[in-house]
């Protein structure tokens, strides 16, 4: 079991992945975001795909934009040392927010299997346009530098807001706001 983030950057993530595949076949590897276990997150699939009324409306013709917010009411507290090395982009955006985006925006899977779900998430993420720097806002909450184990000159972002677009028939032109 590996805790996120999986590597420090793309190169180290790829190296770690090669090491894992040196021991296990891909079919033996399970990558999961613990955030997917939250009841609200699990209900997204049921809301979308168990209610046939939504499917004809779940597209660019009826939806102007989509906002996905992962709000935290507490600071980093006891995780400050870890968080100061990781920041919000690697701790929240690259996994939790992208998982939520995938569940909200993906096409209906061909079956309820984990593979079909994964395949649709991958298709959705591959259809995402690269995010322009003008579409990113980073910040740091007041008092972060006062947290134990945080450098007094830390520039680690604790807040991120992104605007991105999905280039497929369903979402072309619809902005997704992630924060």
TrEMBL record:
Q: Which lineage ranks, top first, belong to the organism behind this chain?
A: unclassified sequences, metagenomes, ecological metagenomes
Q: Which GO terms describe its biological process?
A: glucose metabolic process; pentose-phosphate shunt, oxidative branch
- The segment(s) forming the Glucose-6-phosphate dehydrogenase C-terminal domain are 45-179
Give the originating organism.
marine sediment metagenome
Name of the protein in question: Glucose-6-phosphate dehydrogenase C-terminal domain-containing protein
Q: Tell me where in this chain the Glucose-6-phosphate dehydrogenase NAD-binding domain is found.
A: 2-43
- PROSITE patterns, sorted: G6P_DEHYDROGENASE (PS00069)
Entry keywords, A to Z: Carbohydrate metabolism, Glucose metabolism, NADP, Oxidoreductase
An example Gene Ontology CC term for this record = cytosol
Does the record carry Oxidoreductase as a key word?
A: yes
Pathway the protein contributes to: Carbohydrate degradation; pentose phosphate pathway; D-ribulose 5-phosphate from D-glucose 6-phosphate (oxidative stage): step 1/3
Q: Which family does it belong to?
A: Belongs to the glucose-6-phosphate dehydrogenase family.
**InterPro entries per the record?**
G6P_DH, G6P_DH_AS, G6P_DH_C, G6P_DH_NAD-bd, NAD(P)-bd_dom_sf
For molecular function, the Gene Ontology terms on record are: glucose-6-phosphate dehydrogenase activity; NADP binding
